[in-house]
Amino acid sequence: MQARRLGQGLEVSALGLGCMGMSEFYGRTDEDEAVATIHRALALGITFLDTADMYGPFTNERLVGRAIAGRRDGVVLATKFGIVRGPNGERLGVRGDPQYVRQCCDASLGRLGVDHIDLYYQHRVDKTVPIEETVGAMAELVRQGKVRHLGLSEAAPATLRRAHAVHPISALQTEYSLWTRDPEEQVLPTVRELGIGFVAYSPIGRGFLAGRIRSAEDLDADDFRRAHPRFAGDNLEHNLALIRGVEALAAEKGVTPAQLALAWVLGRGDDVVPIPGTKHVAYLDQNAGALSVELGAEDLARLDALFPPDAAAGDRYPDMSAIDR
User: Fold this and answer.
1) CA dist 303 → 18, 108, 241 (Å)
2) 273 forms bridges with which residues in the sheet?
3) From 230's CA, which of 110, 127, 140, 179 has a CA 20 to 30 Å away?
4) Within 13 Å, how many C-alpha atoms sit on residue 317's CB side?
5) Can you name the residues that pair with 120 across neighbouring β-strands?
6) What's the pTM?
7) Which of 167, 145, 179 is nearest to 265 (CA)?
């Protein structure tokens, strides 16, 4: 497995595994299959695992902890805090105050069954708390040995600069794929200037770029994508027209559309680490195949023509107000 470096000292597998869908959001779940998927990832050398306290809520960290029990030394473990949820799944806003940071870290350590977190992210920026206060509290966790490296998710360039001045930020996580190229304008240049790694979530466009979703009927009844702007109505029809070109190029190269989409993200730089999520061993194996896909200049030009920035129709989330801009 190829390795990549996030920030100044965190080495991770070039491809990570997003574990969110193993517990929530993407329809039916099967914990045994999810654990088998994590075990298969580790066997393939995909050792960078991504979870969060709010997934489940509170159950995904327990699942990941169960899967890595007895295997902790072979895992680079990332989790997040900041999106507040109640015991019944209700969303209660965003918090970044120091007391909450400390409380969340201890709770995550307990659910994961570990004594430290390799990469601890603030999941969303709390716009009511200065980022200096939040990162200051996170830095204290590093000094206590509970956390090794710090990260932010969906943070704007100005926020990143302020955070990085308090304590080195190793990684910024945000959505990045052929149909979400927003980071290219300001975020990627900023993280590269500061020496921060970039972790790309949803690099297969929430599964859309795999070419298996043609209508809402292809999704489980409780799949959150049924209410996602890019999967609805005219937006979906527009986006389906875009994916046909990706499917054609993938067929020419003898790879799957998902592998092509992942190879594109992997090719954006050695400081970019995609973390495609899956809850099935078969899809994990397919995703791993992207590491051997080579894209030439002509391939990249075709993909740029097919998916220029802002090509996709619809917002990334139903409510974009939670994103730091």
Assistant:
1) 24, 40, 14
2) 199
3) 127
4) 9
5) 79, 150
6) 0.95
7) 179
